[in-house]
Amino acid sequence: MKISPFALVISALAAPFQAEVAPAASLTVLRCGRLIDGRRAVPVENAVVVVEGERIKEVGPGLAVPDGARVIDLGRATCLPGLIDNHTHVLLQGDVTAADYDEQLLKESIAYRAIRATAAARTALLNGFTALRDLETEGAMYADVDLKTAVNRGVVPGPRLFVSTRALAPTGTYPLLGYSWELKVPEGVQIADGADGVRRAVREQVKYGADWIKYYSDRRYFMRDGALRSWVNFTGEEARALVDEAHRLGRKVAAHAIGRDGIEAALRAGADTIEHGDGLDDELIDLMVRRGVYWCPTIFVGVYVAEGRAVAGAPIWKTMVDLERQAFGKAVRKGVKISFGTDAGGYPWTENQAREFAFMVRYGMTPMQAIQSATSVAAALLGQEADLGAVEAGHFADVIAVKGDPLADITELERVSFVMKGGVVYKRE
Ligand SMILES: [Zn+2]
Fold first, then answer.
1. 86 C-alpha vs ligand 1 centroid, how far in Å?
2. Ramachandran angles phi, psi of 79, nearest 5°
3. How is domain 83-351 classified at the CATH fold level?
4. Among 27, 99, 277, 284, which has the minimal tally of Cβ within 10 Å of its Cβ?
5. For the segment 228-238, what is each residue's pLDDT rounded down to a tens digit?
């Protein structure tokens, strides 16, 4: 095999993962016991995937192996599209309590946090996630843009990154909070007030590389009359200006919205995706279906933080676990576009983000629906359905494999044995 200087760089830096890089125009053939292609309802048995350079050339059963092709025989393994997680924080390392969060912003430099983010990105890739929508840096400014550049240039291994930089919230609504007014402490977001201030902040984030705009629609969650309510952060005028400016600049908007008030405000403002959404009720679910708004439920993080936050004085987080289970079941039945999104980083990157799948199935999805939420549906949320989320001719050669059958046991996706991104093999067990 002819190895280009670029390939040597990747091989050296990806060690001990031994990225196997084929020359640009070379052909690689994957043999899969079965293929779940990300779109079709049934798997294909004994599939062959022909990869040319960074893209898939041909897919099907019984295809001939072209002359000179490198063959990777995955035996009886099940191949799938590379997984997509549409809600992560590579620059965060767990956030159960305010103390966990504040420590990272107060005691870790952005340089150190960016180094940890490279480890998180590598972890995600080796767990089978070949694309992430990373929903804000939590005080680490534009370090997500730098990480994306480093991955794209082959400096460090990682998923394809769609980044939102600093996120937005008005004065006094987002950590760090509670410190003496004499101290200047870091902000976990970009603070912006007023319609003009919000527009200027959106422009600045786009200028420095934001692919998406993220904002915090609400905070302070509480129950009233059986509904999960919340305090809305921005005025209607501010939120509409934020969404309008983002859309004018060709960027979509992700809204953190947990209580019914925050979700309703975000939908009224025109947000494209609702993050968390624990307080979704029938009326809001119907509105999301009519408007085609996507939902990233982030179930596992809610379960992960509930006990610790209850002990720290916020028992509402335990109630929210039950509410989200109910909302999820309803949303599946009513046909909301549900994308896989985990909030990884909100829990430590030592937890495999694929644990989310088991909750989605337990809460009402079929295993195939859960897989599609992290492949074709997630790619559509990103507007990347022509390139990502399916093992089809013309798509990027982002392919993973598991030894067992994820349709029989969805937790197989927690044990990914093979990872290819853009025709480059990063993991092969
Ligand atoms: Zn988040």
1. 10
2. -95, 150
3. TIM Barrel (3.20.20)
4. 99
5. 999 999 999 99
